[in-house]
Amino acid sequence: MKSTSCIKNIPKHVAIIMDGNRRWAIENNKLKVKGYKKGILAIQKAIQFSIENNIKSLTLYALSKENLNRPKKEINFLLELLSWTLKNKTQKLQLHDIRLNVIGDINGFEKKLKNKIQNAINLTKENKKLNLNIAINYGGRWDIVHGIKSIIKHIENGSYLIEDINERTVGKFFTLYNQPEVDLVIRTGREYRISNFLLWQIAYSELYFTNTLWPDFNESSFRKAIMSFSKRERRFGNTKI
User: What is the per-residue pLDDT across 38-74, written as a single tens digit (0 to 9) for each?
Assistant: First the structure.
């Protein structure tokens, strides 16, 4: 595989909106489940690429809160696929020093699935090579509302005063606060929107859109996104005279 070692500006944190599994299946005359299964292989490639190129955090948008409005049969399959992946891949995460973190509202999931998620998180919590964040039943607005509720509780119990609330303190109550800021957001699948993903966290992230459908996203696709990122001048709202 061609290395990105010659690129000086490698993002520390990459977030990916993995779009196009169902369209890939339709365009390839496959069942939808085949698209999702091939999408799992694309996830494995993205993880491997991240490790090889010293990306510290990789956040993958797997299932949005809006996705739960899809047909029940499809949602059940996705949750079963998640359960199978946790059962069969967690030991590999441990072997490769990958720390798993799940962000999103999992309270409504079955107890068995919630236990699998928590067990995988506990098993890998000391790992250092890569933070792998999986967004499941996640929404950026949910994240903000959940954070606001937590802030209110802290104010009510005296942990914070109103005067203490600023961007820095607020950010501590949203997901991913203890990881590098998101440098780059990649969206696959020919769509050009962020779909309620990490609304607070990507305020100054670079955006990269590709027509490649997620199951076809590979090391070469990832490298193109990194090379595009490396050529950008990040100003964070400032201007240079």
Answer: 999 999 999 999 999 999 999 999 999 999 889 999 9
67 is an active site residue: yes
The helix or strand, by DSSP H or E, that contains position 142, with its residue range, turns out to be helix 140-156
Question: Angle between the 32-52 and 219-230 helix axes, to the nearest 10 degrees?
Answer: 50
For residue 170, being part of any structural domain is answered with no
Cβ atoms of residues 39 and 215 within 8 Å? yes
Catalytic residue among 67, 127, 196, 218: 67
- Please identify which of the residues 19, 131, 133, 137 carries the catalytic annotation: 19
The parts of the chain modelled with pLDDT lower than 70 are 1-6, 237-241
- Per the structure, how many domains does the chain have? 1
Residue 29 catalytic?
Answer: no
Q: Which domain holds residue 77?
A: 13-139+181-230
Considering the domain boundaries, does residue 52 fall inside one?
yes
Global pTM value: 0.93
Domain annotation covers residue 37: yes
